[in-house]
Predict the structure.
Amino acid sequence: MKVFTTIHDMQTEMIKLKKYGKTIGFVPTMGYLHDGHMSLLKKARQENDLVVLSIFVNPLQFGPTEDFSAYPRNLDRDKEIALNERVDYLFCPSSVEMYPRQPSVKVVVQERIDVMCGKSRPGHFDGVATVLTKLFHIVKPNRVYFGLKDAQQVAVVDWLIKDFHFPIELIPCETVREEDGLAKSSRNTNLLEQERGEARHLYKSLLSAKEMIDDGERDRETVIQFITNYLLNNTSGSIDYVEIYSYPELKEMTMLTGTFIIALAVKFSHARLIDNIIITI
């Protein structure tokens, strides 16, 4: 595995590989890798000649009330995981390398951001889109892999690729879960013991809602209220949102039909967890 920390060296290597006709599968991350990331790397390994992993905690996507410095980091451990997953290239630049000065141009996302996580995190997806635009130009991948745990991000990246005409195929991958259903996330390590036990109910609430829909329920508000009550009764966290939208358009709907996402976010004492399911009827 080759490790690069500068944009120049990474970009030069990728340009050379593209001349040789190699297909590149890219997994962009903020590090502190877990099984969810590993599943993306495995899929990238299956579908491409070469796999590139980036590890960069992007300051632009942290809001003023979010602690950038507290985001978990362990680069040595991440390198070991990358080696075990047969990653060919690891790109781990510093913040100064990626943003040597105040950016004169930023990507501003205008659609699919006024709902779910975007509603309570203004500017977050601008930061995501800006760093991905930079990374796409540096890595020049054929395919890019994202987990559907953050389905809103997948929807935003879908249009980033389409609107800017990146020659990249977006590969959404299913959420990887713990045995009790909790979606795997680096933030899970911040849960208190009691909160960890409660956190399994996020996915349980979604599965129970799906059973309602399978039994014929079609009213959006009825399903949202059911999930809200379930979470209030089974967790001590503060509900950030419970929402249902068409997917991937993320448009409001009154009656449930077609493909839609049921998404939620719950704030515990030191971690904000998200989860979702996508249903087609």
The chain has a mean pLDDT of 95. DSSP finds nine helices and nine strands in the chain. The domain at 186-276 is CATH 3.30.1300.10 (Pantoate--beta-alanine Ligase; Chain: A,domain 2). The first strand starts at residue 2 and ends at 4.
